[in-house]
């Protein structure tokens, strides 16, 4: 399945895009997604353990991603 | 009463105070974050805030809900602004009213600390030399260890 | 910058925020105490504040000075109002700005806690039934043990 | 020496006056003053250990009172 991953701030700059498409097998986890993203040209710019949100909630590495989920790579937050 | 919002207009602190005011809540606490002219020794000319709007709204509402659980009967309004801000502009405002002053103060602190840890908002500083840079609290001199703690917490 | 005052006119919270604001101090904390409509279960119609003016002014200035020692470079303005106040009127306002949010919040809390322990100000509640009573925090249900601690501390 | 003692709030009500005159021997302390005040009709209304200020500062029981000092009996404070 193809999952669209939202990018923001420094990550959007690094990848040169607001979102990227990632191809995942059924049952893939957040950790699997991250491995795929790291294979991309800008993947090396990610920190060792970037935050990932699934359906607008922070997700653990073992969380399973389903088709249609809203997935986002969250740079270190800096609100306030 | 609880209200949270990500806004693109200027924040009116007085309006927030009026919104949480009530004759039964004798203590009101307000926190304002404003754009500073210097950060890590570099002269700043302005700040650009951007958010993952849908998730930021949700996360902010969740934090306010947690505050309402912890500080029973708190009146709480939180606004965070996004877009281009000038020096001195208010980026975030938290107003909390409670019958007990300790709770009003604690609620305000709870919200700002959680907001800084969890709400997906980012800021890019614009410097006098024309350059601009995304702020990363996990690596800047004013490092915020809690962001890392959180990464570990969700793992 | 520090300013403290016992005033007899209404307190303007926005003016206090503006007074402590500065481009170098990114965090502003405001605390307001307002007259509540119920205390210890009795319906209140208004509050009358009286002070030992000369000593109250001194003690308030001393507290602000202690805050400035503890929270280096804090911008701090404190006003306490005396006279007849109506429900919802602001009796005390503390505005603190600092480069670090923790210090702005801590300075505000430090001042209100010390003010309640040490500054010679008294209040008389007026009740719906026409009676009025001086508030004694050492004996009321919302007892403030620190007042007793303090009596022991100076002994 | 005669010392004038300022009264406020509930104490002023109890004594029916804004201040009272108390006669003290030279070298008298805050504790001595308090003993004298307790002899007055309204003296019984004072708490076991009322706060006293000398020259607008809280004073310990052993502090010596001098002629011309500004002395005040401070009811439990209730600002804020």
Summarize the structure.
The complex is a heterotetramer, with two copies of chain A (80 residues) and two copies of chain B (155 residues). Chain A is α+β, with helices and mostly antiparallel strands and 80 residues long.
Rg over alpha carbons of chain B: 16 Å
Largest sheet of chain A: 5 strands, mixed
What is the end-to-end distance of chain B? Answer: 33 Å
Instruction: State the major sheet of chain B.
Output: 5 strands, antiparallel
If you average the pLDDT of chain B, what whole number results? 91
Write the topology of this structure.
The complex is a heterotetramer, with two copies of chain A (80 residues) and two copies of chain B (155 residues).
Chain A: E1 2-6, H1 9-15, E2 19-23, H2 30-38, E3 51-54, E4 57-58, E5 71-74
Parallel strand pairs in A: 1-5
Antiparallel strand pairs in A: 1-2, 3-4, 3-5
Chain B: E1 2-7, H1 13-20, E2 27-34, E3 38-39, E4 42-51, H2 53-70, E5 75-81, E6 83-86, E7 90-98, H3 101-118, E8 121-127, E9 132-134, H4 145-153
Helix pairs in contact in B: 2-3
Description:
The complex is a heterotetramer, with two copies of chain A (80 residues) and two copies of chain B (155 residues). Helices cover 20% and strands 25% of the residues of chain A. Chain A is of the alpha+beta class. In chain A, strands 2-1-5-3-4 form a five-stranded mixed beta sheet, covered by helices on one side. The termini of chain A are far apart. The mean pLDDT of chain A is 97. Chain B is an alpha+beta fold and 155 residues long. Chain B has helices at 13-20, 53-70, 101-118, 145-153; strands spanning 2-7, 27-34, 38-39, 42-51, 75-81, 83-86, 90-98, 121-127, 132-134. In chain B, helix 2 packs antiparallel against helix 3 (101-118). Chain B is elongated, with a radius of gyration of 16 Å. Chain B starts with a strand and ends with a helix. Chains in contact: A-B, B-C, C-D. Chain A binds chain B through residues 6, 8-10, 13, 47, 49-51, 53, 56-61, 72, 74-80, and chain B through 33, 49-52, 54-56, 58-59, 80, 91-92, 112, 115-124, 134-139, 147, 150-152, 154-155. Strand 2 of chain B pairs antiparallel with strand 2 of chain C, so a sheet runs across the interface.
């Amino acid at each position: 399945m193809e999952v669209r991953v939202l990018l923001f701030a420094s990550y959007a700059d690094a990848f040169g895009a607001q979102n990227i498409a990632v191809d995942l097998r059924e049952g893939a986890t957040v950790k699997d997604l991250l491995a795929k993203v790291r294979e991309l040209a800008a993947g090396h710019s990610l920190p060792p353990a970037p935050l990932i949100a699934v359906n607008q909630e922070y997700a653990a590495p073992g969380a399973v991603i389903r088709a249609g989920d809203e997935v986002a790579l969250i740079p270190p937050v800096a609100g306030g | 009463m609880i209200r949270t919002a990500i806004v693109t207009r200027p924040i009116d602190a007085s309006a927030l105070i009026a919104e949480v005011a009530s004759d039964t809540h004798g203590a009101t606490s307000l926190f304002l974050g404003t754009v500073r002219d210097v950060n890590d020794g570099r002269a700043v000319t302005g700040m650009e805030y951007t958010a993952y709007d849908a998730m930021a709204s949700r996360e902010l509402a969740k934090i306010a809900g947690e505050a309402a659980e912890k500080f029973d009967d708190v009146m709480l309004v939180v606004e965070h602004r996004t877009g281009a801000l000038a020096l001195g502009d208010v980026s975030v405002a938290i107003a909390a009213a409670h019958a007990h002053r300790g709770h009003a103060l604690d609620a305000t602190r709870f919200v700002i600390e959680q907001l800084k840890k969890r709400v997906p908002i980012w800021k890019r500083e614009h410097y006098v030399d024309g350059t601009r840079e995304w702020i990363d609290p996990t690596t800047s001199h004013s490092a915020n260890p809690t962001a890392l703690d959180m990464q570990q917490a969700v793992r």
